[in-house]
Amino acid sequence: MKTVVDAAYRWSVLSRCVAAALGGYVVVTLLHLALTAVLPMESFKALLFASQTGYLYYTGILIWCFAVRTAKRAWLGLALLALPLLLIDAAYLLRRGLL
User: Fold this and answer.
1) Beta strands per DSSP E along 8-96
2) Looking at the domain assignment, is residue 89 inside a domain?
3) What is the pTM of this model?
4) In a domain, 87, yes or no
5) pLDDT value for 30
6) What is the mean pLDDT of each run of 10 residues along the chain (99 residues)?
7) Taking CA atoms, which of 23, 24, 25, 47 is between 20 and 30 Å from 77?
8) N- to C-terminal Cα distance for the chain?
9) What range defines the domain where residue 71 resides?
10) In whole angstroms, what is the distance from residue 56 CA to residue 43 CA?
């Protein structure tokens, strides 16, 4: 028995792929800088730690984007993750005079 896949389902899968790939990359990049800002160690050591553990976070985000019920929830979850990280990063960059 052949099932018919409509266009809405295909767009949903494409949206999840973009959310997982690009959204996950953005969130993990923001997380790298946030960890550099908040970890109580020298900045190069904190960045090294964040970079090494970033693959774990990215993998978790990829899995999560496909585990949620809808693509809208995937995008909303990524936005909710990115917002506090963006605020932490902005405060860190302002404190260092880079923004």
Assistant:
1) none
2) yes
3) 0.87
4) yes
5) 96
6) 79 95 96 93 90 94 95 96 96 89
7) 47
8) 59
9) 25-96
10) 20
Provide the residue type at 9 as one letter.
Y
Nearest Cα to Cα of residue 64 among 11, 28, 36? 28
Separation CA 62–CA 16 (nearest Å): 9
- What confidence score (pLDDT) does residue 5 get? 76
Query: 99 CB contacts (<8 Å, ≥6 apart)?
Result: 90, 93
| DSSP conformational letter for 52 | H
How many structural domains is the chain composed of? Answer: 1
Residues in the chain: 99
Q: How far is CA 8 from CA 3, 70, 77, in A?
A: 14, 11, 21
Q: Is residue 10 part of a domain?
A: no
- Other Cβ atoms closer than 10 A to 84: 11
In a domain, 13, yes or no: no
